[in-house]
Design brief:
With 287 residues, the protein is α/β, with parallel strands linked by helices. The protein has nine helices and 15 strands. It catalyses: prephenate + H(+) = 3-phenylpyruvate + CO2 + H2O.
Amino acid sequence: MKKVAILGPSTFSEEATRHFLKDDFIYISYKLISEVFNATVAGETDLSVIPIENTLEGSVHLHVDWLVHEVNLPIRAEWVFPIDMNLIGFANKEGQDEGSNPYQHIRKVLSHHVVPAQCSRFMKKYLSGAEFEQVSSTAEGVRLVSALQDPAVAAIGTAIASTNYGVPMLEKEIQDHKDNMTRFLLVGEEAPELPTSADRKTTILVTLPEDYPGALHQVLSAFAWRRINLSKIESKPTKKKLGTYYFYIDIADSLDSVLLPSAIQEIEAIGCQVRILGSYPSYSYIS
């Protein structure tokens, strides 16, 4: 069976990956996203799973930068998974007065850096007096809480982490919006066998020529007159020269289609550099 690198264990990445890929793969957990990418680059695993975008926070910029600047691993699939944030920790041994904040005993909250933006309402209401400390993953926060056994330190993470580390869930689904979703990418040199999907995407990077006024307009026009839908376009610095940018573009079409290859050729003809990150099946969330 193929090996898949994930952030983990007991993370949202693990929950999402096991839900999508089932038991047909061997899952190997790493604490840092750099380790996830490098495991596949080094051949320790066949594929990596990358959280790339969230409903509330948008793109996960660190992960996009790794995909673009640090490695050259083609995108093989994408899928969407719901993210339920839970407050995980130990109840106050001294108890609380009736009607008071039940979590005022918590003085520190451990979790991944993306969490505060997704749970801002709950944290403002119940955890405003607590210090937030960033750790490498939501699961690492729960592991540390389990090791400390201190009611004053809590974590925000997954239900599976609560179970695996033996720490109670104090409050379920504390995210600001119940339709909080994260998009995951499967990347690697070899395309795995996956269920058939009617939806296809292609992701490209476009770097504009410096001496071509109106180049971005012409790039967009190449897609527009062919009625090719762009599901996402985002500008990012090239990190090579101040004021130069590339455009990260998700296209709701396949490279096997008739029109998309000709649109890319038109863009290259005006002097743009085009890098194809992948053409792959896209899966919406299925419960």
